[in-house]
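From the methods appendix. Each design record in this collection lists the tokenized structure first, followed by the designed amino acid sequence. Records were kept in a plain field format so they could be parsed without special tools. The example shown here is representative of the layout used throughout.

RECORD:
FOLD TOKENS (431 positions):
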């Protein structure tokens, strides 16, 4: 079967990888010069299979006013003359309930654990795939007792769902956090405790994606990558996608996978499919480690600041911030300064601040935090969109499941909770 995958980020390429492994002829189309040059390029580097609590939870409500008023807040809203932004924000607030948050956690945890299994299989099957993978473990630190208490409840909830010890998590006090991560000593008086998850990994998403792309090309000379190719739209006839209109002309295949990140909503809208996806602009800094003793050994997340830290091949990656304010990728110096200041306070002297590389990318987020996977309302069009900040983490399970569906097989992992509701697909009230 000939399959066109729209988008060469980590989600699109992992889907193409599994399709190629199944023997399909794959064409990847992307507007950039290469793979993983948008949201996948310099993300946080954390593979958070077990830490999947969505941004939309009841704890958002008391933070709304500070987020709206502070220029340095981890989540910043900038209203646009865009009804899609306002609709997304209202849906996000509607998802900030304990019931919705628990439901989303349950579904994401299933997909995350499936991705972890696939990652470990992949490491055995592709031993030459070099993407700085490490089983680093993850420590999420909290700065107030109420947040730590909520984290404890979340851990207990997730442990009941997991039902095994493979994905164990432990709630620690501040002293125990510093004992397992001595580089946090500068925050000794700031943090009250944390959650340690030994099973979490870290890696370079860009190198992972490019490495998989090399294997797709090597699998068959018929597999193609059309870069520098703008996707204008999808051609539809009688509720069936029959081609893709691009700057390189009309492209035709037997099946089409939409994995175009934040651009997916634009491409789906003319088909009557309203995907509730809006960009959350995030930033990252990458710099050589100046003092290994001052840098973290674990992947670390500062819950209150919404900042993550990971060591990738001798460099410290610092990522965070969510700006809800349009589709531009402009790097705002003030936001970079915020990340630099927080990194300097958390791990003083760890990074060479004279060699910092700053980056900004748009995370394609749904209001609930759940990606949209599986069938669309148009025949021959499949969806793998809306992963938000969990694209790298969930890419393998999402891609494997999509390849299974296209092959008319039962998916590797249940997609319950992720599929597009056919009855409401032409509205914007989901997922």
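DESIGN:
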């Amino acid at each position: 079967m000939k399959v066109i995958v729209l988008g060469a980020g980590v989600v699109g390429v992992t889907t193409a990888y599994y399709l190629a492994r199944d023997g399909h002829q794959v064409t990847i189309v992307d507007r950039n010069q290469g793979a993983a040059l948008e949201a996948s390029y310099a993300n946080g580097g954390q593979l958070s299979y077990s830490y999947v609590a969505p941004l939309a939870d009841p704890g958002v409500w008391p933070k709304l006013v500070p987020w709206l008023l502070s220029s340095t807040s981890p989540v910043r809203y900038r209203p646009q003359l865009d009804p899609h932004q306002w609709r997304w924000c209202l849906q996000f607030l509607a998802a900030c309930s304990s019931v919705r948050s628990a439901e989303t956690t349950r579904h994401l945890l299933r997909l995350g654990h499936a991705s972890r299994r696939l990652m470990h299989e992949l490491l055995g099957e592709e031993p030459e795939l070099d993407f700085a993978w490490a089983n680093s473990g993850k420590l999420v630190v909290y700065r107030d007792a109420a947040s730590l208490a909520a984290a404890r409840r979340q851990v207990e909830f997730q442990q009941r769902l997991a039902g095994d010890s493979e994905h164990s998590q432990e709630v620690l006090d501040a002293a125990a956090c510093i004992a397992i991560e001595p580089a946090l000593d500068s925050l000794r008086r700031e943090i009250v405790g944390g959650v340690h998850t030994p099973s979490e990994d870290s890696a370079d998403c860009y190198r992972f994606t490019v490495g998989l792309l090399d294997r797709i090309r090597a699998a068959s000379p018929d597999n193609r990558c059309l870069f520098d190719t703008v996707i204008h739209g999808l051609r539809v006839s009688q509720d069936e996608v029959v081609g893709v209109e691009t700057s390189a002309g009309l492209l035709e295949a037997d099946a089409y996978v939409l994995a175009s990140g934040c651009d997916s909503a634009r491409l789906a809208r003319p088909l009557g499919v309203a995907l509730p996806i809006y960009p959350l602009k995030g930033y990252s800094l990458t710099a050589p480690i100046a003092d290994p003793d001052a840098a973290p050994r674990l992947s670390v997340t500062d819950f209150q600041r919404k900042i993550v830290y990971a060591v990738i091949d001798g460099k410290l990656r610092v990522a965070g911030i969510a700006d809800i304010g349009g589709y531009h990728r402009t790097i705002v110096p003030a936001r970079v300064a915020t990340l630099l200041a927080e990194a300097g306070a958390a791990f003083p002297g760890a990074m060479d601040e004279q060699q910092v590389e700053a980056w900004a990318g748009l995370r394609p987020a749904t209001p609930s935090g759940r990606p949209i996977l599986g069938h669309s309302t148009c025949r021959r069009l499949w969806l793998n969109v809306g992963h938000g900040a969990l694209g790298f983490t969930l890419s393998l399970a999402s891609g494997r499941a999509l390849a299974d569906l296209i092959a008319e097989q039962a998916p590797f992992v249940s997609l319950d909770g992720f599929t597009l509701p056919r009855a409401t697909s032409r509205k914007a009230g989901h997922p």
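APPENDIX NOTE: The chain has two domains: 2-40+207-275+369-424, 51-201+278-365.
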